[in-house]
Amino acid sequence: MSELLEQARAWVGRPASPPATARDPVNLPMIRRWCEAMGETNPIYLDEAAARAAGHPGIVAPPAMLDVWAMAPYRPGGRTAEEGMAVLSLFDAAGYTGVVATNVRQDYGRYLRLGEVVTSTPIVADVSDEKRTALGIGHFVTLAYDFTVDGEPVGRMTFRVLKFRPNLAQPHSAEPSAEAKAWPHPRPAITHDNAFFWEGVNQRKLLFQSCEGRLRHPPGPMDPLTGSLDFEIVEASGRGTIHSFVVMHQPRLPGFDYPLPVVLVELEEGVRIVANMIDAAPEAVEIGRAVVADFVEIEPGYLLPAFRFA
Amino acid sequence: MKTVTVGQGLPELIVPITASAIVAGAIATNDYEDVHHDKAAAQATGVPDIFMNILTSNGFVQRYVSDWCGPDARIAAVDIRLGAPNFVGDTMRITGEVSRVEGDEVDVRVSGRNAIGEHVAATVTLHWGARA
């Protein structure tokens, strides 16, 4: 289990934030405003006689307003830190800055009456394993709210949010020249599987997935032998030998120098990787020759791995 | 309790998603998250415009069922799955169908769809005839 997940799961069963008590009791002006916004015309929410005729002791609040009463106040600049939830902040700090609510369930013990003051207490109910979703990699956090009036339970709510890493940043140059615009250098497609590799390249490191000591490349979600989704990321020394190679003459794509030696290098860690040779005469490239990894800045902020003779 | 059978449909409701509707709902539900009233703040998060908050979606779902069941039924629970956001300029078409009848307990399955897809899928549980 990741350190983040361990820290987040330590919150399960504990209050996500201190209880919040409504600043105003259940009241007619707020009910009226809610009914107007929703187009609600059920008379039991506004008319005493209609409410009694329907068997209520008097005017009652729409059940969907259960979680409205104790909401955080408006404040210029947004919520205070105390009104936030530390368990969610853990994910923000780890880069899971996206948040989207996915499920809400409310159970109403009884309808709320005018004058009642609602207190809301959220408990962290669950933190999921890491999930791959359409929005990005993330964790579902489930919060269980108890609503009380003078200690009497009046309703419950479970609220599930996804905390996710927003769509992965794709490499792009800040201000491409007119020529580069016409013939942009091809870019890798950054995916959830290979993002770590390209982040490593940007730090001039060659990173590989390792499952029980077996390194693999190109990056993928699963260990080919066991099907395991678990892996560690290890840094390679960059030393290796040419396992195979080609020298590109045609077609001549813009942005490359020709003739271009492209090598398949077997690294000393046992994993193979394809990259361009640099500072090498094509005729000097031969199978078995020792090479060492380097990094070429194609455009500002866009690096590619390459090899040169050791 | 009126006669209710499984499979019975509810009349559809069309909700125009205007900026006014979104903001009115956000204020009525005490929800001051800026993405529900401030277009620039919403766009800064990578979405095209302000969008409806959950409490308002819940409000429309329950108002929709309430239009149909009237004041004699009690809303006992709601179970909501959220999907495509309701952005300004869209239209939400709400449909519903009775999915369970057991004694005086009735489930209504509600779906609110917009141009992107299903905004909300909900089951509303009603208690009918049991006057408190």
Automatic annotation (TrEMBL), chain A:
Pfam families: FAS1_DH_region, OB_ChsH2_C. It comes from the Bacteria. Residues 11-154 form the FAS1-like dehydratase domain. CDD domains: R_hydratase_like. Transmembrane segments: none annotated. InterPro entries: ChsH2_C, FAS1-like_DH_region, HotDog_dom_sf, NA-bd_OB-fold, Thioester_dehydratase-like. Residues 234-295 form the ChsH2 C-terminal OB-fold domain. PANTHER family: BLR3430 PROTEIN (PTHR34075:SF5). This is DNA-binding protein. It comes from Rhizorhabdus histidinilytica.
Automatic annotation (TrEMBL), chain B:
InterPro entries: HotDog_dom_sf, MaoC-like_dom. Pfam families: MaoC_dehydratas. It comes from the Bacteria. Residues 15-102 form the MaoC-like domain. This is MaoC like domain-containing protein.
